[in-house]
Fold this sequence. Notes:
Blueprint: H1 3-25, H2 38-48, H3 63-78, H4 84-93, H5 95-103, H6 124-145, E1 147-151, E2 165-170, E3 222-226, E4 245-252, E5 257-261, E6 264-267, E7 270-271, E8 280-286, H7 292-297, E9 305-312, E10 315-322, H8 324-331, E11 336-341, E12 374-378, E13 385-387, H9 390-402, E14 409-412, E15 415-418, E16 421-423, E17 425-427, E18 432-436, H10 446-449, E19 452-453, E20 457-467, E21 485-486
Antiparallel strand pairs: 1-2, 2-20, 3-4, 3-20, 4-18, 5-6, 5-12, 6-7, 8-10, 8-11, 9-10, 13-17, 14-15, 15-16, 18-19, 20-21
Helix pairs in contact: 1-5, 2-3, 3-4, 3-6
Amino acid sequence: xxxxxxTFLIIRLGVTVGYWKLFEKAxxxxxxxxxxxxxxxxxxxxxxxxxxxxxxxxxxxxxNFFAYYVxxxxxxxxxxxxxxWSQILIIFTGFFYLIYLxxxxxxxxxxxxxxLPAEEKKSVLTEWTEAITFAVVAATLIRWLIMExxxxxxxxxxxxxxxxxxxxxxxxxxxxxxxKTPLQLPLTHQKIWFTExxxxxxxxxxxQYRLPGIxxxxxxxxxxxxxxxxxxxxxxDYPVDLKTNYIKRCVAAAGETLQIVDRKILVDGKEFKxxxxxxxxxxxxxxxxxxxxNLDKLGxxxxxxxxxxxxxxxxxxxxxxxxxxxAEELKALPYIKSVTKEDHEYSAGIFPFSEYYGYGAGxxxxxxxxxxxxxxLWIPKRGATITLNDSTLALYGxxxxxxxxxxxxxxxxxxxxxxGQEVTSYTFNQNxxxxxxxxxxxxxxxxxxxFVPEDHIVGKGFFIWLSIDPNQKFLNKIRWKRFFxxxx
Length: 488
């Protein structure tokens, strides 16, 4: 059974046990706790005494998060638990406290909320204020320490991750980072929701540390990180923890050597196993415009192709980003003239933007680094020392001066100076990683901008909890098969 689904079933079982005992204490049938949503309706109407229409609050996304805490706080008071500690315990221990409450002899049902003695009741405003405050605190702590929600906005990870996938990112795998920018509105990133107003001020910048995790970033992991270059952060100097989030696959970790040869990725000389759904760009020639329904049957969405034009009256040319299996399916269709995997030999815009590695004139094509032929490139590792010369500075000079926590490091006349003194070797202060999208020819990744520093790592892609197809309508928009799918 899917581990995530099993976890949810365990949580629901715990909640059901707690509800069952609470229902019995109120003189209600315990079996009513067995039915999800209906049990919350009984809790709301027959335990707390709220009007039937109030259930709408529990169905509206976002609002339901806060409404549930309003409801559960009133449930506590209906059983004589009116203390601050009771509210804290219900938030941070969840169904365990419900079970305790159900089996505790001291927890007796006192009646519906509006029937309680005055000292047990609080105003509606107070109830909502407390619930929102506690919910925000709980959500902020969970988001920081354990899990954060993330949405796939671009096709750079297709077909392993799709546009419209909603996933949870694990903070406990690599260890969460301590906050660097503490003066920030809770549950925001760069801006206040639906506005262009910054959600933070950088008056205080704290030193950043990483709490212990259960694993390290390794090649093959799907990783969410803060994108390093300023140009990809609206050309703003955001603090590290507020830079724009990207999600890619780590193809080479600290201390490993990466090379791409004819599209094949080699890590320390061994072939890196591509995800089965990795995509490439293909040039497609068809007898006419391909019907969208036919594209949909092949799983080709609007983000997976572009029409290039008509070279003649009987031909329409496309560029499509496809898995090899889908490309083979296209070849068999009667209206497809040809399917050709594209080569990407251009070096312009490819890291490290140096004449030593194929940027500009002066090297043969087979020596120029590009999307399909790249490296070899050693990935910096904490504590490792390199000799500095023109070619190594071209690769590592920028991260030494920008990301490696050297207060006064700069390159002058192609020489590295630290605290005004020229140095001929350098020891790295943190680990770095090389990230690539599974949509190999349609991904803005490390091949374009270089290494990801360890202090930019946010977390590991964990599982998909919802998936919505932006190209479909109504109920067809939901990709039911992707619910609770682990990310591989």
